[in-house]
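Example (one chain per record):
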Amino acid sequence: MSRPCVLVLAGLDPSGGAGLLADAEAIRATGARPLCVATALTVQTTRAARRFTPVDPALVAESARALLEEEDVRAVKIGMIGGAAVADAVASALERHRRLPRVVDPILAASSGANLFDGPLSAARDAYLRLASGALLTPNAPEAGALLGIDRLDDPLAAAALLGKGAAAVLLKGGHLSGNPTDFLFRPEGCERFSEPRIPVVARGTGCRLASGVAAGLALGTPLRDAVIAARKLVREYLQTHLSV
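Predicted structure:
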């Protein structure tokens, strides 16, 4: 029996540290099969992102539709979209598949600080909130603040307000918060916290891997809470490999 598939729409990081290659690695490790559509091409090394160009929106939409028609897609993961036109193409391609679980990881800037959206922050905010309607949204603290229109997210519980902007659930990634990293899972019925001691390494692509791991779990039929726990374990194992290098 073939493995259930996760359709991934994200930027291509040729170094493999983040983006599509990291997404595919996490999805395979979880037991699902990745189907990867590049939304942007980046000039990027293991140290920093230098620049990017969005992929032709029509090509993105055609690629996604072809895979949705012919493959056993059970979940969708959306990462870097690069610009408003690509966001429109992604939304159009997914319009007939709104029942599929979706995980939206709002990529606004690289960890090195480089902008990864072609347009103003207001356009990026609108694009990601549109794509996250009815989906699991997985921002880190700076991304959550940007989506809420505030300069700094001082109180992580404030991210619950993203539920009021259309997301079905929000997983606030806590790596940017002080102390032991704590992820917050917000759902209409309440909030749950997941915390572990910080692993003292710096590694790119942890957010990509976490979101993709959750999407893979959902594709396999795992309940959201259990998919989050499994994806967190996957990311911690990835960090441990850097610790031993």
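Caption: Residues 224-243 form the longest helix (20 residues).
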